[in-house]
Amino acid sequence: MKSHQPLPISMMRAMVLERSGTPLVMRESPAPSPAAGEILIAVSACGVCRTDLHVVDGELPHPKLPVVPGHEIVGRVASIGAGVTGFKIGQRVGVPWLGHTCGVCAYCRSDRENLCDVPQFTGYTRDGGYASHTVADATYCFQLGESTDDAETAPLLCAGLIGWRSYRMAGEARALGLYGFGAAAHILTQVAAWQGRSVYAFTRTGDTAAQAFARSLGAVWAGASEDEPPEPLDAAIIFAPVGALVPLALKAVKKGGRIVCGGIHMSDIPRFPYRLLWEERQLLSVANLTRKDAREFLEIAPRAGVKCDVTRYSLAAANTALSDLREGRLQGAAVLVT
Length: 338
Ligand SMILES: [Zn+2]
Ligand SMILES: [Zn+2]
Fold this sequence. Notes:
single chain; seven-stranded mixed sheet; binds zinc ion; alpha/beta; about 20% helix; about 350 residues; six-stranded parallel sheet
């Protein structure tokens, strides 16, 4: 099937996960009509996030199946549902992971919609952006303006936003460690360097390419995860889904230091002696994002001059993009372009 032929708006094509643990398959179907409160978006780019791997591999519970993955969506409004205000046809918008919240649970009512009791997540419990079109709840979409490239903007919608939330949770760290130098770390390094912080980048042992990439983006030091950094860290963020990094990061932070786990899934954390946590070191996780995080970060990213390094794939090559991400064959972020 050719992926580049334009379709009438009444039809859409999508890379669909029909069963966990199986490759995505291309499906063509009538494009959905936006329900009240929703917009139909013609997708131009969708980032490929590590969370998509966890969805495809069945590591996250209760996905909608079949599901169209993808939650770093950039596209243009193609049709507007009843009751939607503030959007117009043709406008460029972004859709993040947080697809809907209930607005009434205790978390929603206390500015913690990221922890909503009955949330919907784009590309997981509702269809996402590995597609020519997608529908989204308009109140969870962001206007993006016209000044940036679609593919280079897509990774900001998750790697950027959840990276930003993790970064904020890490506190006012001057010396900041980043474990796992993928899409999120490559964005955050630029923000942290712009703010005058010192970034220490930790990669897989021997991944000298990732280490050089980290230095090129402003990291003051890059090495292997097992390495001791040249100075004790104030805080560290772990983006790699590897539980064994937790005790390593705890060893690398000074008294009162904070470790933030930024991923949605991680392998088991090995046992470690209490002395690694002692002296008020803290270990915490970051879940999802709030719309406030998104507004903050989308405002800060251009001021910080964030530039995403992307590898483009066609929609039909989504499985290749996923396996390149899985095998660590990528620098920066993978993006599907439609
Ligand atoms: Zn809620
Ligand atoms: Zn993501």
